[in-house]
Design a protein that fits this description.
The protein is α+β, with helices and mostly antiparallel strands. 53% of the residues lie in helices and 18% in strands.
Amino acid sequence: MGSLGNYMKKRKEYTWIIAIVGIVGVLCFQLVLLEGLYQSEKERFEEKILEDIKQGIPKLNVNLGFIYTKSRNLISFESETRRLTILVEDKKYCYSLEEGITEKEIFERVYYDASNTKWKASHLGTLIQDSLRELYHAVPLKIIIRDSVGNSIDESGNLSVAKCKEISFGPVPLGYVTGRTLEAYYYFPFINFLYHEFDRILMTAVLFLLLVFFIGFLIHAVRVERENANAREEFMHIVLHNLQSPVDFVRRMSYEIKNRSVSEYTEEQEKLYTELKRRLDTMGQGIRRLLTHSVGVYGIHLEKSEINFPEMIVGIIRQYKSLSGKQIDMECDSSVSGFKADSVHLSGAIANLVENAVKYTAEECRIKITCRLHGKDIRITVADNGRGIPKKELRRIFRKYYQGTGAQKGFGLGLHYVWKVVKAHKGKMEVKSENGCEFIMVLPWNNQ
């Protein structure tokens, strides 16, 4: 797969990763909100059940104390001394109470002692369940009444204590004389949360699903549009790639036609040839610039064929020598044959190096192109004896859009294009700047 394909694959992966992270983030946020809502509803439930227990105990004490009292039981309380006296079945009990307990609370509690028939845990359980039935679907509740030494004497409810230790009430004293205490255990089942907040949960779920749907739809739409745009760009890239070869061929053929002409061109023919050559050079440079820019943005698609290096380099030299008038020499090993590469991109990369050498050397400077087989590599060198490149800039010259000190006006894509072409052929670039500048393209023979 070409670099464009790799780039788009990564973009697609990143898009889905961002979308999934976004959806998971929204889901986590909704879960956090639901957790907060659940805790809030749980707190309301706890407040309600505690309130019902606290109000139910004195209510049963007072009501049953009045109804079931058959013997004469007496209660007295001296507010100044905080002394409580209880007479139950001719037995007298005295207590000194601490500050802070109201008379209402005292008499509500002593009614339990004054009642001959004590209420049961089931009475309080029924009272609480009746109070909560309108608000909650189910209330798991267990009530235990213990004697003065902690033994259970009455229980109500089928909730195991082990299951609800985290939520409990008591033990609280029921009276003063008996020493009995009451404990209550309960928990808040999730079904009660659903029972109360079903509409809100349903709305949250619907909104989340709609959000996921629209995100997926948006990603799909963006992906389709991107694929269409990439197809258009790739088509343009291929068109530019395929245009370069015929333009170079027509340029070479026009040159050969003139050289092989049996008679010299007339003045009019010379003008036509010059204009044709100028137009072809302009077209070739324009296509190469567009191709360079396209490669820098969308990557390289290689179409490899066997390369005739001497012919390729001679064509490049002829073009730039005629344009600049500078001396450009060539050395190419005859043993370099059978190497496969993309002729358009490789010749474009060499041409870029030659064009830079032409730009940044004086009129009397010389440029030399060499092509040698070195071990398992082919080394193509473009050297000049110009001003060279500062050493501090050598590591940056192949960066996209980078323009060094004293660079002529341009886009900073030429050397980046050369680097991309060499990399696409699984090679590497070397550059030296001592007496002039020397760019070396190292291409492995087995780059196929």
